[in-house]
């Protein structure tokens, strides 16, 4: 894919760290404010939890459910808002093996589990669009979508869900709790800045139509913040540094921090090329924003931050 080389005169984050810290560290920028305000509202968060409870009751009317879990970006604080009909949240329903164990072992069992979940939800939500989307059943409500994943327990803290890329013919391991624990540990150590960087990264993905998954983008942000040498770095500084590295990270690939699987193994060559191109464009805007910020031009910096993110950050 080639090597990304910084333009002449560009100072890396680490090389300019001392001068920048003396000049601007500790100042709240528009990017900090934007990062804080990108999540769903408290009311929307309450609606998400209430909907999980109703879905659980609907499924329990038709299936033997051991437990349910809200998981995904909402529980890690990286969901971006405001919620729209294109937003989605994730819920896992753990199936009872005694009653439904045939799905775990039988041919096309995972596909059959998805079909059973779909029938149950169609029955209880006749006015909503219910569809199978790879390894989940999606319920499209008027305000946002809930993705329902049937699952079986699989070892300490792990689960099996229908295989995303095998047309529902098998099961794949997942451990959302394991990743959530790691994410929260890093976020706490960095003063909550990991959540903010991840939300801005997802806004860039969404607004610039970068063809990587939301989870893939979040894990790249997680890895960057986790390994950043300055534990006191601000949201702005971390976000600028992450976007600087984004084209290279997309090019080289990303692995799941828990199971080590490649998150981009199914990305086509065209999608990877487009993702890198869009990331480079965002990087150029972010470089200009950083330069203006260091020059004390807060209005100009906000304008370029907005161009990098793809929406107004004021």
Automatic annotation (TrEMBL):
InterPro entries, sorted: CD-NTase (IPR053550), NT_2-5OAS_ClassI-CCAase (IPR006116), NT_sf (IPR043519)
Q: What spans are recorded as compositionally biased (Basic and acidic residues)?
A: 250-268, 275-306
User: Cross-referenced CDD domains, in alphabetical order?
Assistant: NT_2-5OAS_ClassI-CCAase (cd05400)
Organism encoding this protein: Salinirubellus salinus
Map out region (Disordered) in residue numbers.
1-48, 250-314
Q: Which GO terms describe its molecular function?
A: nucleotidyltransferase activity
Query: Where is this chain compositionally biased, Acidic residues type?
Result: 12-23
Q: Which domain of life is it from?
A: Archaea
User: What UniProt keywords are attached to this protein's entry?
Assistant: Plasmid
Short name of any one Pfam family annotated for the protein: SMODS
Q: Which Gene3D superfamilies match?
A: Beta Polymerase, domain 2 (3.30.460.10)
Q: What is this protein called?
A: Nucleotidyltransferase
């Amino acid at each position: 894919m080639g090597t990304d080389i910084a333009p002449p005169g560009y100072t890396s984050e680490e090389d300019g760290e001392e001068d920048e810290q003396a000049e601007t560290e500790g100042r709240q920028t528009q990017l900090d404010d934007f990062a804080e305000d990108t999540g769903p509202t408290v009311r929307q968060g309450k609606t998400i939890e209430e909907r999980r409870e109703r879905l659980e009751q609907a499924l329990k009317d038709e299936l033997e459910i051991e437990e349910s879990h809200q998981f995904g970006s909402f529980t890690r604080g990286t969901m971006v808002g405001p919620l729209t009909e294109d937003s989605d949240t994730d819920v896992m329903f753990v199936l009872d093996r005694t009653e439904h164990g045939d799905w775990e072992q039988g041919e096309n069992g995972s596909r059959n589990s998805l079909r059973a979940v779909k029938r149950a939800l169609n029955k209880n939500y006749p006015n909503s669009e219910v569809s199978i989307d790879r390894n989940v059943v999606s319920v499209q409500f008027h305000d946002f979508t809930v993705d329902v994943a049937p699952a079986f327990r699989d070892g300490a803290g792990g689960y099996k869900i229908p295989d995303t890329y095998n047309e529902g013919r098998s099961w794949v391991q997942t451990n959302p709790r394991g990743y959530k624990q790691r994410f929260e540990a890093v976020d706490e150590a960095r003063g909550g800045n990991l959540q903010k960087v991840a939300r801005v990264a997802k806004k860039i993905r969404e607004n610039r139509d970068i063809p990587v998954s939301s989870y893939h983008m979040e894990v790249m942000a997680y890895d960057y913040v986790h390994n950043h040498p300055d534990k006191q770095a601000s949201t702005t500084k971390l976000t600028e540094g992450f976007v600087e590295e984004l084209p290279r990270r997309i090019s080289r690939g990303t692995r799941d921090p828990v199971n080590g699987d490649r998150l981009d193994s199914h990305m086509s060559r065209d999608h990877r090329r487009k993702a890198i191109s869009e990331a480079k464009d965002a990087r150029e805007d972010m470089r200009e924003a950083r330069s203006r910020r260091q020059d004390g031009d807060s209005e100009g910096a906000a304008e370029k931050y907005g161009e990098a993110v793809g929406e107004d950050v004021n």
